[in-house]
Design brief:
Elements lengths: L4 H5 L2 H54 L6 H11 L6 E9 L6 E6 L22 E6 L5 E9 L11 E8 L1 H52 L14 H104 L6 H28 L7 E4 H18 L2 E6 L4 E5 L1 H17 L5 E10 L2 E8 L29 H11 L4 E6 L3 E8 L3 E2 L3
Parallel strand pairs: 7-9
Antiparallel strand pairs: 1-2, 1-5, 3-4, 4-5, 6-8, 8-13, 9-10, 10-12, 11-12
Helix pairs in contact: 2-3, 2-4, 4-5, 5-6, 7-8, 8-9
Length: 533
Amino acid sequence: MKIQPLKWLRSLHAKLFLLMALVTSVLTVAVAYNITRNSRREMEAYTKNLTIEAARTIETEILERDPKFQDKRKVEEMLESIAGEDRSIFQMDVFQRIDKTEKVDLLVSSGVESEIQWTPDLGKFMTLKVPSAELVDLSTGTKGWKVYLPIQNPKGDKHPAIGLIRAYCNLERWEIVWANNQSRTLKTLPWVILGEFILLWVILGIFVNDPLRNITEAMERLEQGEASARASVGHTDELGSIANRFNLMASQLQRASSERESFIEEIRGLNANLHNRIDAALADLQTKNAELESLVERNSLLREELSQQERLAVAGQLTATFAHEVGTPLNLVNSHLQLLEGQDDLTDKTRDRLGVIRSQIQRVGEIVRRLLDMTRRPQLKQESVSFNDLVDGLQQLWLPTLTAHGVDFDVDSPKDVLVSADRKQMEQLFINLVNNAVDAMPEGGHIHLRVSQAGDGWSMELRDTGHGIPPEVLPKVFKPMFTTKPEGKGTGLGLSICREIVRTHGGEIRIESEVGQGTTVIFSLPGMARAAA
């Protein structure tokens, strides 16, 4: 049988074989690579733990036998029993705290003390809560673990450590073991892949190629006019089912061949009529679909807007009820307080205390008024506002908070920017946005405000370097009463009020965020213009 490579490459057998060979070889190489990589990681983790355990053993022995370092020879014997050049733990150094300072002095070492590199400021490692381990280049020319372990005070954790242990683990032997394993894996891998290829070739030949060739030959004979052509059925799988269906089709075709011509014209007519009706139905359906999509989109927008207005209404009702319930007893308390202050026989100390009570009552009243202001629909009192003066004033207000949280703030804005806006609402807008940015950066960060002209208005971008917003949460951030802050830290109204303020001024607002990269709030305020020169 003549082999035709190009014809074989176009066959299903070749495609399946090459695809499965590629997949199996990639999987085999990936598994082998993963095994060798994991073996190295396990080796490093094991040697790291071995070094830490050796250091802990020395710590335990010192605390049990000589916690005051009175017998240097005992410590030397302990080190010699664990460390040495012919062992994995080839060197261990024990340092003793110098009086009550944070510095240490070398007490004893398993190596040559004159060759040991150390400084008294190694005492900084005595404050570690867990052992410190790092891979370093050893004096032997190989890699190794260097571990620092504080020797805890036997009097308890509240007392400072009494010393420090430094242990070195030589990875030379382990590197040889790992290299041997890797070499054996690389030598075995080609034979494993070759075996997989041979097995795939045999399996595909038996279960795919031979049945397909049998069915194809029967189809070619039927095409050439041999009405009795049938495929032999040798399998009960899908290919066997295809062969059975082919044989049934051939039998039906043979019986129906005499009736075929009489139906051709009728079928053509039906096809043409059906095609016209389908085209008309599809055109009508496309029109209906377009109308339905438009209605669904409008309905969705209306439902979203209604839901947010309902949330704000509920929040307003709750706040108004709260303000009424709190305001009534506050007014009574304030009235009685005025009566008390009107008495002439009060001492100065009592009047001071009454003054403190009055200031706290006023503070509670201010909080209630702020809550009411947050839930009321903003009423515009537009005026010409200098944007730079507005931001300068707000920066003085933000400065203590930004300084306390380690946050930098800078503005990139053109000079002489005038906006037609409600100054109080603008202040509330920027205060809410900056407070959110600060909350997103508990460990400090940077806030950048950029202002640029966009047509007849201004585009503003407030970007922070915080932890960002997850994608599944981002669509919900403008919903009233929705917050991701811990209980007691957020009302869920800040961003919804910001959007209401921007929309009331005729602009739009959106948020772009990536987890770990920060958040950018972008909003536009149409109708603003640069001041005339």
